[in-house]
Amino acid sequence: MATANRLTDVLTQQVAVLQELQQVLQLEQKAIVDLDTAEMELLNSRKEELLIRQRAAADTLRQAMSETAVELRLPGSATLSEIIDAMPVPMKAQVQPLQQSARQTGSSVSVVAGQNRQMLEQFLSVVNDSLGFILRILNTSNTYGVRGTYLPNHQAGAVMVSKEA
């Protein structure tokens, strides 16, 4: 079963990439907490590279699964679980732990990525609120001038209406 051995190799490769991605995401989390934008930028480049490798591994895995399924007389569209169920016991003992490891690591990557996203969204919200506050102060001083007097011919956000008019 040469294709089953190839399937084992591809799954091993995919688990390794997912574990590396998980480590990078954990480092990114630390950089977010430390507000280390230079490190976040560096880690973002590493994530992009790892995602390219993961996509390539996923494509190779699909091909290996299809070939293994055909070898086991299953439809080419068989799932990995269906393929594992049809394998001889010794090969099943090799592939099944890799499948579980890929599932667990993928789930863990998803959780950490979600946490990082939430942290970054909250950080950006705080920055946006701070900038909004600063801009309101700056716009107020332009409307009223240095001595606090109203500047004529200035477009403000609100229009004053006189009841006497």
Q: Any overview of this molecule?
A:
- This protein is an all-alpha fold and 165 residues long.
- The chain has a single domain, classed as Orthogonal Bundle (Topoisomerase I, Chain A, domain 4).
- The protein is 79% helix and 0% strand.
- It has helices at 2-34, 37-71, 80-86, 89-144.
- α1 (2-34) packs antiparallel against α2 and α3 packs antiparallel against α4 (89-144).
- The chain is elongated.
- It starts with a helix and ends in a 21-residue tail after the last helix.
Order of helices and strands: HHHH
Mean residue pLDDT? 85
**Total number of helical segments?**
4
End-to-end gap: 93 Å
CATH names the topology as Topoisomerase I, Chain A, domain 4
Note the main attributes of this structure.
elongated; mainly alpha; Topoisomerase I, Chain A, domain 4; 165 residues; single chain
Summarize the helices and strands and which ones pair or pack.
Elements: H1 2-34, H2 37-71, H3 80-86, H4 89-144
Helix pairs in contact: 1-2, 1-4, 3-4
Brief summary of the model shown:
By secondary structure, the protein is an all-alpha fold. It is 79% helix and 0% strand. It has one domain (2-117): Topoisomerase I, Chain A, domain 4, CATH 1.10.132.
